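Lab notebook page, bench 4
Experiment: in silico fold of construct C2
Operator: M.H.
Input chain length: 383 residues
Purpose: comparison with the prior construct
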Amino acid sequence: MGRHIEGSLLMEICHRATALAAWLIATTLLGHAALAQTALPPAAVPVVTSAVSLKPVSRAISVTGRVEAIDRVEIRARVHGFLDEVAFTEGQTVREGDMLYRIERDLFEADVRQAEGVLAQARAAKTLADIELERAEQLLAREVGTEQQRDIAKAGADRASGAVAQAEAALATARINLGYTSILAPVAGRIGRTAVTKGAVVGPDSGVLAVVVSEDPMHVAFPVSARLFLREDTADRVEPSQVRVRLRLLDGTYHAHEGRIDFVDVSVDQTTDTVLARSTIANPDRALIDGQLVTVDLEAANPVEKAVVPQAALLADQGGVYVFIVEDGKAAVRRVRTGKTIGAEIAIDEGLSAGEQVIVQGIERLRPGVPVQAAPAVSERAD
């Protein structure tokens, strides 16, 4: 009985020893596998890079501007009368001196004839006064007349001269008023709608009858930052006359003609810290209309060297715009401040230096610190 118990106990001990040995072997193997896995470095991510290059970039900004006619004239009546004729079609192009309105002339022609008659009377009276003065002077010279008679005759001649001058002025006024019955276009351009029609009574108090605006060339006025023209650093100061002006219309297309800034206002708007500038733009095809809003692209004539990278390299998050660069064989994040777009490239105002390698392909698999296997872009390999 005792031998049977001892045999069973011995077998139990053997089973336990075998299980323990198996566990130790399995644990050792798993530990080696883990160590082997830990020791292997992560695989490098294949990427395509582009070297940051320096290129001359013109400084440019975009602002909103308004088109203004160089000549904009409000047509008004200068004398009272019935309107006999509206001599234009609304919206048509008129030349300087073209007839626009005609006011009845009869009363004004009568005023001219009356003024001519008064002038004739005044001249006849002056002729008589001159004769009487001459006779009085002759009598005085022969000691037949008196100085008093001569003085009276002289005063009469002077009064007659004054009457002639008054009559001449009245005649000139009557003729001017007669001329005002024909309302002519003061400038060439396009005329808008008429506020009155034939048969209406018009006069100086009738308000604006129509508006004529010139069409070629046109002015474009726009606000720009005062700092743009008032930089203390003369090397970075923008000369207004050297700024290239291009207009973008509402459909996104550019106006066919460009201009230069030819006027900068003398005061700064204190609420916006901007100054009003203006450019003159050719408009032979009449694409620009008085009062039209346009986008004004301003480009300085003196370019500066700036870092330029492909737009494909740019990424953005809540912190702003950034790129991945290759640094010590690994991907690194670099925050940048972007500038002007140049085709498929973009200027970098701050954050990159010439020669640095920015990643343009394979970005979706990257995170900071990941090893990369960089290859230059095809165009750079060809160079």
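Observations: The first strand starts at residue 45 and ends at 51. The chain has five helices and 24 strands.
Next step: discuss at group meeting.
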